[in-house]
Amino acid sequence: MPLYGTLDLTTKSASLPTMRDLETEAWALPRAEMLQVLVEAPRATTEGLLPKAMHPALPAYVIFAVTHYSESPVGPFTLAVMRLGSRAGAHPRGFVLGAVASTVDAARELKARWGFPVEAGTVKLVRRHDRIGGVVERDGKRVLDCALIDPEAIAGTDVQYINWVTAANAPLDGAVSPMLVQVDPKYTIHKAERGRPEVKAFEGAAWNAGALRLGDPIVATCCTVDTDLPRIRFVMDPLKPVFQGTRKIRDTRAED
User: Fold this and answer.
1) Predicted confidence (pLDDT) per residue in 180-204, tens digit
2) CA–centroid distance for 100 within its chain
3) How far is CA 99 from CA 122, 150, 217, in A?
4) Which residues does 126 contact at the CB level (< 8 Å), separation at least 6?
5) pLDDT, tens digit (0-9, with 9 covering 90-100), for 210-236
6) Which of the listed CATH numbers 2.40.400.10, 3.40.50.300, 3.40.50.2300, 1.10.260.40 matches domain 9-250?
7) Count of other CB atoms within 10 angstroms of residue 73
8) Do the Cβ atoms of 137 and 119 come closer than 8 Å?
9) In this structure, are residues 52 and 8 in contact, taking their beta carbons and an 8 Å threshold?
């Protein structure tokens, strides 16, 4: 029998971000620099974080991504996102637990357009000769300090990014209700590096991660990419398996 998440999003609607609609235009985000750190997490500490429609990854892991977007419709900003490794049916996905953006404008638009559970804070991506670090602070407290140690150049084809799933209240068929929203950026990688992952500080409560604890590090990469935030293609019922509860909104790639 397949394993499913246990989170009933219909009981959490008051705490979810609310999207304006499902009609946002895509954002082109050229020459972004993206640090991604993967770390295992004891599965017992991830219970209750994944919606019932999705499957947990085995072993459990989390993805920290700290990305500096040098160009966007709301100006330059840096975004930190924490995602829980999972699957939607047979497809690997990263379920967004929490996010912090470096500007108020970016936080507002990411929440309203794509349903990110994002707040404004201090987010920095710092490159040194021996490390590439991401530091996040909220309300004067450091909630994440992660890094790639001793970067080495690799081929862009050696890096794989998985699509995101966010949980938000969104309008559909005349009603606003909790749903899962797929966010599937495109990536053209210009430069890629890999190194040893390190997490020096992590506060789960700041990422809506409850009692989640971090385990062994897996890998860290940093890439310079042309990417985007796309139009919404699919939404999913948060209580049904995705093969039953997925609804196609549009064929984004045909319209881009």
Assistant:
1) 999 999 999 999 999 999 999 999 9
2) 11
3) 11, 26, 20
4) 132, 133, 134, 135
5) 899 999 999 999 999 999 999 999 999
6) 2.40.400.10
7) 13
8) no
9) yes
